């Protein structure tokens, strides 16, 4: 009950803020329905029937994704968890190996309750435990055989980190030397292009298959897509059916995804460009306010998301965030919450620089960070 009350209090405080840097949260039902109605007017004919088991708007979305990624075909999935299982299970049959090499911080290992092993019967191995994707020599010298190398771009739980283009191409080449296929977990691939300095299709072309999300970065309702050769997509669709992913109708998710590709995808480079100044201003503002050891990771963000670390208890930081929103009507963290992922008293929050953040100058961020430090003093 106390947790629900705190959540409601935080939501009300953030709703009352004139400006929110990160973590405003999803729109309410009324706003979400208005967006969906607008998308329907833009992407569907007035009397067009709703999709039926993946035709219509869903097929249109699949064509658009294949075009953007430069893949032969694409398939819509209700979740990324299902999309990746279908891809990796299909590759296991083709390679004759049920072993997937990935990072221990990869999404399937941390956030999916062991689904690759429990549901799909796959085994995972870790070429590295360093907080980055595996280096070429780690792939080349790894002691166990594997059929598929899965690379998460960016590696979210390590801090939304990306390799350089040369590092990425070398790692992929090392996997090819071992006759392994390469799959990209590209839930957030949409915002990687500025870091690599390459278009999406050139990035995706390095891999044999690519998964992308529609609700991460693109503000879609839900859903994901798998891009790959047509033969693999055909098999992945069979696994989608077996896994229970062939839904009767999915037009709301498809409409919101099409709108995200049109509206949000072109804006992502501006968000990525603004992330560096925001990260710098946060460090400076907290230091000016007297907070000890403010850290941003990566120091220069690779995408429009990054980690912020402060050496204070999470409860104290979250209370200060709430107090700032209620009293100043300005919020750095919105509904986002600090947590202590390692040492007690060392807290981290994930920051997202999106449309709301573009309204903030570096001076705005520094001032708000210094003000947050004052709100923290009584709680810390």
TrEMBL record:
UniProt entry keywords in alphabetical sequence: Pyridoxal phosphate
Record domain Aromatic amino acid beta-eliminating lyase/threonine aldolase: where: 54-281
Cofactor(s) for this UniProt protein: pyridoxal 5'-phosphate
Keyword Chaperone (UniProt): no
Top-rank taxon: Bacteria
InterPro entries (alphabetical): ArAA_b-elim_lyase/Thr_aldolase, PyrdxlP-dep_Trfase, PyrdxlP-dep_Trfase_major, PyrdxlP-dep_Trfase_small
Endoplasmic reticulum in keyword set: no
One Pfam family recorded for the sequence: Beta_elim_lyase
PANTHER family, per database record: L-THREONINE ALDOLASE, L-THREONINE ALDOLASE-RELATED
Family named by the database record: Belongs to the threonine aldolase family.
Record protein name field: Threonine aldolase family protein
Organism: Streptomyces polygonati
């Amino acid at each position: 009950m106390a947790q629900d009350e705190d959540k409601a209090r935080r939501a009300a405080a953030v709703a009352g803020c004139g400006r929110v840097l990160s973590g405003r949260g999803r729109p309410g039902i009324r706003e979400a329905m208005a967006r969906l109605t607008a998308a329907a007017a833009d992407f569907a004919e007035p009397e067009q029937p709703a999709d039926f088991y993946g035709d219509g708007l869903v097929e249109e979305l699949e064509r658009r994704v294949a075009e953007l990624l430069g893949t032969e075909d694409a398939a819509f999935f209700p979740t990324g968890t299902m999309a990746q299982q279908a891809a990796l299970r299909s590759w296991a049959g083709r390679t004759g190996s049920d072993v997937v090499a990935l990072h221990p911080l990869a999404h399937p290992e941390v956030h999916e309750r062991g689904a690759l092993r429990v549901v799909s019967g796959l085994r995972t191995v870790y070429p590295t435990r360093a907080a980055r994707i595996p280096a070429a020599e780690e792939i080349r010298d790894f002691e166990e055989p594997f059929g598929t190398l899965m690379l998460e771009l960016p590696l979210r739980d390590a801090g939304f980190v990306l390799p350089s283009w040369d590092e990425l191409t070398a790692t992929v080449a090392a996997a090819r030397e071992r006759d392994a296929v390469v799959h990209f977990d590209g839930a957030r691939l949409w915002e990687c292009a500025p870091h690599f300095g390459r278009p999406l299709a050139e990035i995706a072309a390095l891999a044999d298959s690519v998964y992308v999300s529609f609700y991460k970065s693109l503000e879609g309702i839900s859903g994901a897509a798998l891009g790959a050769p047509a033969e693999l997509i055909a098999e992945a669709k069979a696994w989608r059916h077996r896994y229970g992913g062939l839904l009767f109708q999915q037009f709301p998710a498809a409409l919101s995804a099409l709108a995200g590709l049109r509206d949000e995808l072109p804006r992502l480079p501006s968000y990525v460009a603004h992330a560096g100044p925001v990260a710098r201003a946060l460090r400076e503002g907290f230091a000016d306010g007297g907070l000890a050891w403010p850290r941003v990771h990566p120091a220069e963000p690779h995408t429009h998301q990054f980690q912020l670390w402060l050496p204070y208890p999470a409860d104290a930081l979250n209370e200060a965030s709430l107090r700032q929103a209620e009293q100043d009507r300005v919020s750095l963290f919105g509904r986002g919450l600090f947590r202590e992922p390692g040492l007690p008293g060392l807290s981290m929050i994930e920051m997202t620089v999106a449309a709301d953040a573009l309204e903030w100058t570096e001076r705005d961020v520094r001032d708000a960070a210094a003000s947050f430090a004052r709100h923290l003093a009584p709680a810390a």
